[in-house]
Specification:
It comes from Melia azedarach (Chinaberry tree). By secondary structure, this protein is of the alpha+beta class. The chain is built from ten helices and seven strands. The chain has a five-stranded antiparallel beta sheet with strand order 1-4-5-7-6, covered by helices on one side. Strands 2-3 form a two-stranded antiparallel ribbon. Strand 2 and strand 3 form a beta hairpin.
């Protein structure tokens, strides 16, 4: 498919956690009803407000994007982070996006790829209110309107999670639709710097969650060269053995491999 720029099993989880859970008691915190946020003006989008810093990994300097999250963004990030930690039973004391990525790294270090996908899918189900998802699915059954709506919705309300993105069009079922979200540089992939975490903790769980909760298939196509990604609403993802993302070796400078000896298996 060619995209072009527009002007704009619960039983298994329970058994798994009973075996792996490490209970850590933590003071109560405010409950967040959802993780949607309003668009912010201070997110990295262009040269005028892009903030970068040089990070050195194994003696190699890398340029890293710095996000100035609003308090609403931080609330959404912390809510999702707490959902992951509550699902796995592995806690950390870090805040913001760093805390969320640390929670994801704990999943990567302590569970195999299949378990990782199941746990993150369960965490997403915990994070997003089921009644709201059911209402959306009822009001927007799969159609051209629904696919284009979800594409626009993602670019407005999930920049805090994936980074700056835009709607693009593609050919689907013989006609043109604005059903593609092009993520310019994925925030999660840049922060984790790990192919295995991308595929097992983001790509597969997101595809499964969106299809099961909203009734719309979606394929995520990461580009590991420039860290961009495309979410194609309406397209069924290929089987893992046919998906190029699962044949990609991890980065030579993967932090998890270097620091913790993690096998970045997709």
């Amino acid at each position: 498919m060619e995209a072009k720029l527009l002007p704009q099993n619960s039983g298994g989880i329970t058994a798994l956690l009973a075996r792996r859970r490490r209970p850590v008691h933590k003071p109560g915190c405010f409950r967040v009803a959802a993780v949607l946020t309003r668009p912010t003006e201070n997110v990295v989008t262009d040269k005028r407000n892009t903030v970068k810093e040089v990070e050195t990994i194994a003696g190699v300097a890398q340029i890293k994007t710095i996000y100035n999250d609003s308090w609403v963004d931080r609330m959404a990030i912390n809510h999702l982070s707490q959902s992951v930690q509550a699902t796995t039973g592995i806690r950390n004391d870090k805040d913001g996006y760093e805390g969320m990525v640390e929670a994801a790294k704990a999943v990567s270090r302590n569970f195999n790829p299949i378990e990782q996908r199941e746990l993150v899918t369960a965490a997403l189900e915990k994070a997003f209110p089921r009644p709201i998802l059911t209402m959306i699915r009822t009001m927007l059954p799969e159609s051209k309107l629904a696919r284009e709506f979800f594409a626009v919705f993602t670019t407005i309300f999930f920049v805090w999670l994936i980074g700056p993105c835009e709607v693009r069009e593609s050919e689907l079922n013989g006609r043109t639709e604005k059903n593609v979200v092009h993520i310019k540089k994925c925030r999660f992939l840049e922060e984790s710097n790990c192919v295995g975490m991308c595929t097992n903790l983001c790509k597969v769980p997101s595809q499964t969650f969106i299809k099961d909760s909203l009734g719309v298939p979606v394929t995520m196509v990461p580009n590991f060269d420039d860290m961009s990604c495309e979410m194609i609403f309406g397209q069924e993802p290929p089987a893992s053995y046919d998906d190029p993302a699962f044949k990609q070796p991890c980065y030579k400078l993967c932090k998890e491999t270097r620091k913790h000896g993690v096998k970045c298996s997709s």
